[in-house]
Design a protein that fits this description.
It contains 4 helices and 5 strands. By secondary structure, it is an alpha/beta fold. The protein has a single domain, classed as Response regulator (Rossmann fold), CATH 3.40.50. Helix 1 packs parallel to helix 2 and helix 2 runs parallel beside helix 3. The longest helix has 11 residues. This is Cell division protein FtsJ. InterPro entries: cREC_REC (IPR046909).
Length: 113
């Protein structure tokens, strides 16, 4: 399974495919099963926000096994969380914050988590 890191500026963590736009992220989500998804909110002036990705995930039922919200935008994190929380299936873990160091290490080394 693939892991996706959606961010227009930050470096891709090891073990993740990088989506530099919301469109790339949605294409990846639609392409098959996703293990971990980490979302940014502010995706630049010429793109939609992570809030739009969250809305489309809900509308299309595009839920990975785990979702992290690594954005530095407090309002953006709140919007994404409030969109996703009521809709996530029991099989999806929703984290209202970024991946921690230990979880990043597990993903980078391919350890089960």
């Amino acid at each position: 399974m693939m892991n996706i890191y959606m961010d227009d500026m930050r470096r891709r963590p090891s073990g993740f495919a990088l989506a530099r736009t919301t469109g790339e992220c949605l294409l990846m989500l639609r392409s098959g099963p996703i293990d971990v998804l980490s979302l940014d909110y502010d995706m630049g002036p010429d793109d939609f926000s992570g809030g739009e990705v969250a809305k489309r995930m809900v509308l299309e039922g595009l839920f990975p096994r785990e979702i992290y919200l690594h954005t530095s935008s407090l309002e953006g994190r709140k919007e994404m969380y409030e969109t996703l929380y009521p809709a996530v299936p029991a099989s999806t873990l929703l984290h209202n914050g970024p991946l921690g160091f230990e979880r990043l290490q597990e993903i980078a080394t391919g350890a089960a988590g």
